[in-house]
Write a structure and sequence with these properties.
single chain; 448 residues; alpha+beta; 4-stranded antiparallel beta sheet; two-stranded antiparallel sheet; 12 strands; 60% helix; 10% strand; rod-shaped
């Protein structure tokens, strides 16, 4: 054993010490979101030439640390990110559908209940057409129905405003994350150029990629010097150290600010745009159709009747959409056309009015049918989107568990490695001690 043994022992001590430092970092970050477990990479140190007094030979010079790498699985990362946008989009669709289901209100106090109460008030009036209180009840129940339709329309408009704001927030988040990612690319490139291992920066980059992937589907490619390029569809969101901006014009969907080309929609971005341009306008159209059908059948039949003043029935409902429908404010109880004559006991028109809910309109259907169809469609949509959200979320959680099993810190493994490197440290230190004792004996006790 010579001075070479001492150098080998030193290299072993240094390698074991560095490995224990990395393990300590892993343990300290066991609960840090986005942290990737590190591992020390070791290799045999080069060969040293023998001392002049030694037999000509080459000997190993010990161990060296070649780097500290992150434990990541690119395949799992890509799989997770490709599904993340679908999950976030499904969650937003489920949220919007659940809110939209409330538009028609509860069964016992919403539009359907108000519509049933309106027809029932005419039925009761037919039993006592001369009763002014029953006539007032018809007016009151009609206004309650109109109020329910106006409230439903207001909810749709409020939800639409909320969705527009959500879409704008998604675009702002994407732009913020892409700008941060471009800056990280610059820092990572500088670190790689200097020969450093920017593991912390790479973790930050992967966290940002996960966040962007939740908002819209992205693909990535590795550029030079460790930078990552990010694409939405075929357009580069992040090209090296340059981030492109997405803008939302006053009309239409989001476009690339650099050239105005439409952005490929997916994830939350697609869900918000779909709700804003298709789902909610469709619900509003259905409400307007209900209001128009109600106004048509009720006003038509009311005009065919006669009030107590021997006048033909005036328009019962006024307004053109669900947003502004209301009972004609000029109507008084005596002007409710319950009969076909001014005779107080004439109930013939009231009987016909009570059955208007099932009256067929060409190409439209019945008022009751339109209302039930919209309520059913909203309920089915809420249930279907919620189910889809649960299924996709479960699949994504499985992928995340697989990722965590690879990149996450396992305390049992870390403690086992800590003991292993502790033993290696102690053994290398013992090698150094023995080499030192032998050199001391050789130098100080043999006269060399």
């Amino acid at each position: 054993m010579s001075s070479t043994s001492l150098q080998i022992g030193i290299s072993g001590v240094n390698a074991a010490r560095r490995a224990m430092e990395v393990i300590s970092e892993n343990i300290a970050n066991v609960n840090t979101d986005g942290y990737s477990r590190r591992r020390v990479e070791q290799a045999v140190m080069g060969r040293l030439a023998p001392m002049p007094s030694e037999v000509p030979r080459e000997i190993e010079a010990g161990v060296k640390i070649t780097g500290v790498t992150r434990l990541r699985d690119g395949v799992l990362d890509n799989a997770y990110r490709s599904q993340a946008a679908g999950v976030s989009g499904a969650e937003l669709r489920a949220e919007i559908a659940a809110r939209a289901e409330e538009v028609m209100g509860p069964l016992d106090s919403g539009v359907q209940d108000a519509l049933g109460a309106f027809w029932a008030s005419w039925e009761r009036l037919s039993a006592a057409p001369q009763d002014l209180a029953a006539r007032q009840e018809v007016l009151s129940s009609g206004e309650r129905l109109a109020t329910s339709l106006r409230a439903a329309s207001q909810q749709v408009h409020a939800l639409s405003d909320l969705v527009v704001g959500r879409g704008g927030d998604v675009v702002r988040q994407i732009n913020t994350y892409s700008d941060q990612l471009a800056k990280l690319n610059s820092q990572i490139g500088d670190a790689v150029f200097r020969g450093a291992a920017p593991n912390d920066l790479l973790d930050q980059r992967d966290v940002l990629l996960d966040k962007i992937a939740r908002l819209t589907t992205v693909t990535t490619s590795q550029g030079k010097d460790g930078v990552t390029n990010v694409y939405v569809g075929s357009f580069p969101l992040v090209d090296g150290i340059t981030a492109q901006e997405i803008v939302v014009p006053e009309t239409g969907g989001p476009v690339w600010g650099i050239n105005g080309y439409p952005v490929d929609l997916s994830g939350e971005l697609a869900a918000a745009h779909e709700a804003q341009t298709v789902t909610l306008p469709g619900i509003q159209d259905s409400l307007d159709q209900i209001a128009a059908a109600l106004r048509t059948v009720v006003n038509g039949q009311h005009a065919a009747g006669t009030d107590l003043e021997n006048n033909a029935g005036a328009d019962f409902f006024v307004g053109t959409t669900a947003a502004d429908i209301q009972v004609n404010t000029t109507l008084t109880p005596s002007q409710v056309a319950a009969g076909h004559s001014s005779a107080p006991a004439d109930n013939r028109n009231a009987l016909l009015m009570a059955r208007l809910g099932s009256q067929q309109l060409t190409g439209i259907g019945t008022v009751d049918g339109l209302t039930a169809t919209l309520a059913g469609r909203l309920g089915e949509s809420a249930a279907a989107t919620e189910q889809m959200s649960r299924v996709l979320t479960t699949g994504l959680a499985t992928l995340q568990d697989q990722r965590e099993s690879h990149m996450g810190v396992n305390l049992d493994e870390e403690l086992s490695d800590l003991v292993r490197y502790q033993r290696a440290y102690e053994a290398s230190a013992r090698v150094m001690q023995v080499a030192d004792e032998m050199l001391d004996r050789l130098i100080n006790r043999t006269g060399v």
